[in-house]
Amino acid sequence: MIFLPPWTRAPFLPFKQPAVILAVFGAALILACASSSGLLFLSSAAAETLHRMLATQCADAAFPTVRAANVVADPARRVPATSLPVEPVAVDDRQVRAAMRGLGLAEPSRVLISEQVPQVTAGSTSAGGLLFYRDGATGHLTQVGPRLPGAGVWLPAQTAASLGVRAGATVSLSASGAHGSSASVRVVGVYRDLFTEPVRPYWCAYATLYLYSSTGTDEYPAQPVITTDVATFERLREGYGGSSTDRWVSAADLSGVTLSQGESLAGKQHEAYRRLGLPEPEGLVERTTGTGQMPELAERAALTRDGLRGPVLPIALGGSILALLLVGAAGSYWADRRAREVRLLSSRGVGPAALALKAVLELAVPAVAGTVLGWLLARWLVALLGPSPLLDRAAPW
Fold it and tell me: Which of 82, 187, 337, 378 is 20 to 30 A from 257 (CA-CA)?
């Protein structure tokens, strides 16, 4: 039956009735726009929420990060530099890098921070200093005096002045409770104290290590003693019997990140911890400072999106119901225009299914065109008027 003329000619018949085409096209356009705009708006709002939170953080705050605390070379030994109960761990740098690369993350950089404040001693004078290493750190310092080649440490200017040392001198690092354990190292450079300069983007995530914070005293915390390489850091740490918090930070382009992409990065960070058997940070401070904050930020953005569902989706649903009434009216308009032919076909024994198929064939072209343009209109309106032009890849579907 569908190969008979009433059905084969059906797709072309509406063009002889422009009023029907316009009615169906307009109804489909309104329905598609109303039904899709709600979810598109929620995606837009989630992206904008995430971007606003990222804008208040350091540039690398949301970079995927693996963090290991209480790191020592030999977990079997007790850490003598601290009286706190700790469970030392040893982490293989190559395994961490392989795990992060295997998840599609960029090659990570290293950050090592001592968990104790060793005493830096020259002769009979001592001063506290926080042992620190980060890839490329010495290239983001303001040099004071000469700089020597080779491995060693960079001292902040005030610490160097109080100790009476400069590049080329030798100092020793020891920690209280370390039973006399110490390690000697050559000073290869002196840098201007970081707290005397504006915070550079490179140091932003680690500014709390050296900036003054109101804790009841007017003193700055112990300033970073920066090693030139990982091997020097580990040698000094083991020499005075300390432990460190090590980070592997993988850079990511977050300029146009959406919530689903942020959740994907957070998922990769979770999976890296799982593969390596390391515990994820649980404390609020650890989860909301430094790098590796994407899981927390993505969770907050998702909460904002979910909170908007209440007022947004009912409006979209109401608009869709009204649009469906328009679609029904357009179909009724077609039935009025085609009533004579429908009666004739029905009197010849054509059943309701075949008549419905004929109606679909006649109305499919304007309905599909209206649906596509309504969907595009919703995307354009949300991108133009919504919180953000960024949409999750799954949202339009």
Answer: 378
In which order are the strands placed within the sheet that holds 119-122? 65-71, 244-249, 109-114, 130-134, 224-227, 153-156, 182-191, 170-174, 119-122, 125-128
> Sign of dihedral through CA atoms 152, 154, 159, 162?
positive
The conformation of residue 3, written as its DSSP 8-state character, comes to T
Residue 139 corresponds to which tokens in the numbers above?
């290239």
Helix 352-385 and helix 18-55, axial crossing angle in degrees, nearest 10: 40
Q: Are strands 65-71 and 125-128 parallel, antiparallel or unpaired?
A: unpaired
Lowest average pLDDT, out of 33-47, 210-224, 380-394, goes to 210-224
Contacts 24+ apart (CB under 8 A), 312-318: 312/38, 312/41, 312/42, 313/38, 315/38, 316/34, 316/35, 316/37, 316/38, 316/39, 317/38
Task: Please write the tens of the pLDDT for every residue from 284-314.
Answer: 888 888 999 999 999 999 999 999 999 998 9
Amino acid occupying residue 255: S
Which residues, listed in sequence order, are joined to residue 190 by a DSSP beta bridge? 155
**Chain centre to alpha carbon of residue 33:** 30
Question: Hey, what amino acid is at 18?
Answer: P
For residue 48, count other CB atoms closer than 10 A to its CB: 19
| pLDDT tens-place string over residues 120-141 | 999 889 999 999 999 999 999 9
CB 250 within 8 A of CB 100: yes
Is the pLDDT reported for residue 79 higher than 90? Answer: no
| Sequence letter at residue 172 | S
Residue 330 is encoded by which pair of tokens?
């357009």
